[in-house]
Design brief:
Blueprint lengths: L2 H11 L7 E6 L3 H8 L4 E14 L5 E8 L5 E8 L4 H10 L5 E14 L5 E15 L31 E9 L4 E2 L4 E8 L12 E8 L5 H4 L8 E14 L5 E14 L1
Parallel strand pairs: 4-6, 10-12
Antiparallel strand pairs: 1-6, 2-3, 2-5, 2-7, 3-4, 5-6, 7-9, 7-11, 8-9, 9-10, 11-12
């Protein structure tokens, strides 16, 4: 069940892995290994182009990346770097630049807000633990980003837009009832931020809204006990705009599930 996740960790740690990058900062925290062992999985990986960079007086850094989606659409991801990861933060202040192609690995830093009609929604940023900067946008020949289009003589190849990675893995317990009908299901998943700390401390729980549109996944949710049974959700992060109770427009995040497992 966890073979893909374990393989990912092994690949990241392998000194022989060939990556098309000119800068690779890998920060592997001890708690990450414990997270897999305790079924606490909290991973996000996104690829895209850097559009905006902000450095703040308190030493933190925020930047946005634009990820291309199927159909030519795109999503904007907010990425955070704090003093908690000072080495990576200093490296990015020196090396990160606009228009660079980057891959981000990290965790979701999620907070909740109340909409003008009284509903609770989530907004997320990516707390980066690893940043890979690609050299001039190059990709490996065996990469899934590499083009396989062949053209006849005298024909001009029209490059197709590269589909950037947008993948999320979260495990935890369902903290709300499962709503929806025949077309979709939705619920809130509570995931521990720090595995060895208390599950009852709200500050240690990340609440992410999950939407399920694939009807083949509906039976997996049957009989799941709220706040008791653990599930693993794989999918992608998406965004919608809402007005919070103050009238300010806020970008709300949610996970579009493509796989769900009971664990």
């Amino acid at each position: 069940m966890f073979s893909q996740t374990l393989r990912r960790f092994a690949n990241l740690l392998s000194p022989n892995k060939q990556l098309p990058i000119r800068l690779c900062s890998t920060v592997f925290e001890p708690q990450t290994a414990r997270a897999v062992a305790s079924h606490n999985i909290h991973n996000i990986n996104v690829t895209g182009k850097v559009l905006n960079i902000y450095n703040f007086e308190n030493g933190t850094m925020t930047f946005y990346i634009k990820s291309v989606c199927p159909g030519g659409f795109y999503k904007m991801h907010k990425v955070l770097l704090t003093q908690r990861n000072a080495v990576l933060l200093d490296m990015m202040k020196t090396n990160l630049a606009l228009e660079q192609k980057v891959h981000i690995a990290g965790k979701l830093n999620t907070s909740r807000f109340q909409t003008y009609d009284g509903k609770h929604r989530s907004t997320s940023a990516i707390m980066a633990t690893q940043v890979f900067i690609f050299s001039d946008g190059a990709v490996a020949k065996d990469s899934k980003h590499a083009s396989t289009t062949e053209t006849a003589p005298n024909e001009v190849a029209v490059p197709e837009p590269v589909i950037d990675e947008n993948s999320v893995e979260l495990s935890g317990t369902i903290t709300t009832g499962i709503s929806g009908g025949d077309q979709f299901k939705s619920f809130t998943l509570g995931t521990l931020k720090v595995p060895h700390l208390s599950r009852t401390d709200p500050k240690n729980v990340s609440f992410n809204r999950i939407f399920v549109y694939d009807k083949s996944l509906f039976p997996t949710l049957n009989g799941v006990r709220v706040k008791r049974d653990e599930i693993l959700v794989r999918g992608e992060i998406s965004y919608r705009m809402y007005k919070e109770i103050s009238g300010k427009t806020v970008t709300s995040s949610y996970i579009k599930a493509t796989q769900i497992y009971r664990i």
